Amino acid sequence: MIQINQVRNLEAARDIKERLAERGLLDCVELAVRVRERVAVLEGSVPNVMHKRTIEEVALTACGVSEVVNRLRVAPMVAVDDVTLRMRLRTALAKSTIIDETQFSVEVTIGCVHLRGLARTAAERCAVENEVWAAAGVRGVTNEIQVLIEEGPRRRDVPEEIARAVAQDLGLNPAAIGVVFDRGTVRLHGEVAHEHHRVAVEEMAHWMPSVTDVVNELRVVPPLPLAPDADLAQGSSTGLLQNQKSVSEPHVGG
């Protein structure tokens, strides 16, 4: 049984690295991954906070992983020239399954990224900015992407559209987030695990057609820590998620 568990742990760690490599998240990153009893421990250094969060969220999608202890350090990195950074960003956007990268322009000036274009949904707009922030070498983002508004969702469809965007882009459980829509105002209630999730849900709601105002009553309830363990307890407060698939950045573009 011990040998079987060891094999599963190695397979889970390998799956995490493969998923990160597919999204280009291992560039300019020093990363060590250990998995034990469905808990993945991430150690090393990354160039920015969004990169750290995105790696954690990708690790949660790996087979055999239910929790993540994120010990990644944010450390200064060697500057990336604008041409290389722009190519890196276009590659990252092209790999996303929910982004049509042909609809967006990406300009880079001394590490600062300017986004323009027309997104099909608010979730796609947020996803583009999230992918940009996750790239090594990005120092700032100005998001001028507009959301396509044709007929827009019917009034009764607004909560459903928000729930779909929350699940698709943020990877959160929409059942944990209540949405009430009345005369242009969205009222959000329920619980999320992190403040950046709370901000991201509000941002997406603002960009929904027919929405003129958002009242954010979401409560931040941090996940419970792991049971004390000599090997895993240290540093667990910096990045433990329980059974959630998630993604976002507290920065609001534009």
CATH class of the largest domain: Alpha Beta
User: Helix share of residues?
Assistant: 25-40%
CATH architectural designation of the largest domain: 2-Layer Sandwich
Distance between the termini: 53 Å
Radius of gyration from CA coordinates: 19 Å
CATH topology annotation of the largest domain: Histidine-containing Protein, Chain: A
User: What is the helix/strand order?
Assistant: HEEHEHEEHEHEEHEE
Give the quaternary arrangement of the chains: single chain
Strand order of the largest sheet: 1-2-3-10
List keywords for this structure.
4-stranded mixed β-sheet, 3-stranded mixed β-sheet, Histidine-containing Protein, Chain: A, disordered C terminus, 254 residues, 3 domains, alpha/beta
Protein model, in words:
- Helix content is 33%, strand content 27%.
- The chain has helices spanning 2-22, 49-60, 82-95, 122-133, 158-170, 195-206, and strands spanning 30-36, 39-46, 67-74, 104-109, 112-119, 140-147, 177-182, 185-192, 213-220, 241-242.
- It is built from six helices and ten strands.
- The model is unreliable at 228-254 (pLDDT under 50).
- Strand 4 and strand 5 (112-119) form a beta hairpin.
- The protein has a four-stranded mixed β-sheet with strand order 1-2-3-10. A three-stranded mixed β-sheet has the order 4-5-6.
- The protein is of the alpha/beta class and 254 residues long.
- It has three domains: 2-77, Histidine-containing Protein, Chain: A, CATH 3.30.1340; 82-147, 2-Layer Sandwich (GMP Synthetase, Chain A, domain 3), CATH 3.30.300; 155-220, 2-Layer Sandwich (Histidine-containing Protein, Chain: A).
- The longest helix is centred in the first third of the chain and has 21 residues, at 2-22.
